[in-house]
Each structure stands twice: as C-alpha cells, then as structure tokens.
Amino acid sequence: MNFKQNLTVLFWLYRQKAKADGKAPIYARITIDGKYTEISTGKKVNPASWDLDVKQVIGSGLEVKLANQKLAQLQTDVERIFNGLQTQFSEVTPAMVKNVYLGKPAVEQSKVAKPAAKNELTLLEVFDEFIAKFEKRVERENASYETLKHWRSTKKKVAGFIKYHFDRQDILFSSLGDTFADDLYDYLTLHVAKPLAEVTARKEVKWVRQIVKIGVKKKYIPSNPMEGFKCSGGDVEVIPLEFWQVEKIQQKQFSVDRISEVRDAFIFQCFTGFAYQDIYDLSPENVVLVGPRKERWLVKHRGKTEVGEMVPILPIVDQLISKYQGHPYCLANRKLIPVNSNYRYNVYLKDIAQLCEIRDVSGGIRRLDTHDARHFFADMMLNNGVPLEDVSKMLGHKSIRTTMRYCRVRKSRISANVALVRNKLFTKTGKFRQAS
C-alpha cells in the first residue's frame, strides 16, 4: 500500500475543439507522480467565461452554477477513486483512476490476475432482467401495473445518471463506488431538468438499492455500496381532510358525469381506505359476506404489499356500489365502480378541489390527490376509537409502524381522554378523590 503518491486534478479549456457556437469543452488532467491522463468533463463554455487563474467558469446564471458544480463533483470523485485504489494496489496510475471513473475495471481484464465475476451483468441489464420478471407478475395479476411503471421510470433515471456521471451507456456492478447512492441522489435533486424533492429522490435511491442487492446475491460485488445511504428523509406530514370538507365534496352537484364519477370514487376511498390501484381492481367477487349476520365486507389483497385488507361496507359505500351496478364500464369490465387512469383521476381531483373550494392550512386551494382519501379514512377511524391494529389491517399494511405515520391525534381526542383521567382523579369541585 503506497500512501506517498501525489494526485493533482487540473481543469483546462480545450480551445481547439470549440464548436460553431464558440463554446469549447472543459477537460480534466489527472496527474499522479508526473504521469497524467485526460478526460472530458462533459461541459462546454464560451472561452470568455473561463477564468485561467481559478480554473472555473465565471459569470452568473444556472448554466454557470451547474458547470462549476460538475467540476467540483468530478474532483471529489477522482480523489475518492484514487484513495480507494490505494487500498487495493501498491501503485495507482492515472489510467486506473480514469477507468474506474468511466465505469470500467481499474486494470484491463487481460492484465488482471483474478478474473471478473463469471457472466457478470451490467447494472441496467439487471434492471431489464428484473423488470421482465415483474411484467410476468403483472400479467398474472400478482403485481401492480402502476408499480411496473415506476420501475421503468426508475431505470430511465438511472440510465440518465450513468450517462451524466460516468459518460457511459452502462456500468458493471464492480464499478459502483462507495458514494454511488450519494451521487445518484445529488443528480436527481440538482442536475436533472426537473429536480426531484428530497423525499422523492431518497425513495428513488431506495428502489435502485433493491437492484444492487441482486448484484450482491449474484456475487458480482461482495457488498452493497448503497447500504449505508439513509433513504428515509423524514415523512412529510399530511394534514387529513376535515369531515365537513369530505361532506362538501360528497354533496356537490357537478354538470359533467366524468367529474361526478371521480368524486364518487374518491368518496368510496374515503370510507374504505383503499388505495387507487385497489379500488381500480375491485370486482363483485371482492364483496364477501362475513359472520352469522352475513355482514357485507370488501376483502382483497392489496396490490402494493400483497397483504390482505378487509373493510366492513359502510352505508355510503353500499350506496355507491348500488349506484354503479348497471354502469356500462362496470358491466363490461366486472368492476364495482368506474375509475379513471391514475393521472386523469388526480387531474379531476384538482378540479374538484377548486370547484368545492377545498383549502389547505395556508388558505390556498388544496392539491387534492387519491392518497388524501386514505389519510382521511385512517384519521376518521383512529379518532373514533378504532384500535391501531384494526386500522392497520383495514389499510393492508405489513407493519403497524407504517400505520403510525397516518396517526394524527386531534385536540378533541386528547380532551376526551384527559376528561376520563380528570373524572377519575378529581371531584367536580376539583379535590382529589380518595384512594379506594
């Protein structure tokens, strides 16, 4: 292990390669003990904007900011790769650093004593393999099509990241560095045309981590370099709808049938707690008679978790089921209620929030979506004395910890519970009751 090697990274403008628009590419020169190699940073600037002294782009605006961020990130990556290679090789060369940065093995395969994992697939190839299996599960109705679309979307994001960060179409698992998760997170929140919110980006990283786990199982890499990344960025508190707001939506008369149907589907969700994909899949077979009184329940496996969810049918839900028994869509597709695509459903819900003047805590029109109904159901049940375990089962959660995210204790509930304690400990005049 040689810690005496010296690394320098120098950025320079390749003016001879300037294009018709006058912009020239920025290159990075990686030098180790007098030996060097060069790589393109993927950024181009006007020569007038390049500062020869500080080796940075000068000026203002988003393009300048992103260019300098890219240079800083490249230097950090090169230094990290160099330090990592020093723990593996007695001598590190600029070519080895460049290879790893570009997603290649540090040393050419013909020069490596130990061959790479047999039949090692690339990251995107494993993605494709996973998605192909998931498609078959969807065909057999063992998985959700909405989840499949999410996996496809995540793969596209990862492909964009590989192109941006490694300047390659794909990379081997053995090329994943310790900061792969952090770099992906930064890309999703800083370097894409429409940056993701922090919580959303962390969830995307969590999905990718599942794919990398497959690489570990196949022994392409000894351990998951993404394991230490904190994917839970803190839950965003969702303020449940008030009962009067749901009642206002339920009683509103709409002149357009499609909006009325979306409203009814939303009310159906509010009083069953079912997620969008689950009400979309509901058929008459999901109505089950339970117990000696033959009580009507909705029973099914939740598409997302494959956990059973079961809810007694409340009167308002029963009325909606009866309302749509003869609906052409329901008859043709054996569905309980007509439901739009998820995208159109949420678009119509925004219209409904506007028409019903459903406002958020700031006074603006609330951005209503399908998940608000699920939160309302959980809040309604928990604040009316239904045990957490029962609510968890109705929501189809795998763990009560998940259900606890839906808990929002209202002042009225606190007041009622403290009143019980007050009456137990104190008399009406405020004196302590004598201990029994």
From TrEMBL:
UniProt similarity note: Belongs to the 'phage' integrase family.
Gene3D superfamilies linked: 1.10.150.130, Intergrase catalytic core (1.10.443.10)
A GO BP entry: DNA recombination
Annotated keywords: DNA recombination, DNA-binding
Record organism: Dyadobacter soli
Keyword Nucleus part of the UniProt annotation: no
Lineage of origin: Bacteria, Pseudomonadati, Bacteroidota, Cytophagia, Cytophagales
Pfam families hit by this protein: Arm-DNA-bind_5, Phage_int_SAM_5, Phage_integrase
Family annotation (InterPro entries): Arm-DNA-bind_5, DNA_brk_join_enz, Integrase-like_cat_sf, Integrase_catalytic, Integrase_recombinase_N, SAM-like_dom, Tyrosine_recombinase_XerCD
Domain Tyr recombinase: start-end pairs: 234-419
PANTHER family from the UniProt entry: PHAGE INTEGRASE-RELATED (PTHR30349), PROPHAGE INTEGRASE INTD-RELATED (PTHR30349:SF64)
Top-rank lineage group of the source organism: Bacteria
PROSITE patterns: TYR_RECOMBINASE
Name of protein: Site-specific recombinase XerD
Recorded GO MF terms: DNA binding
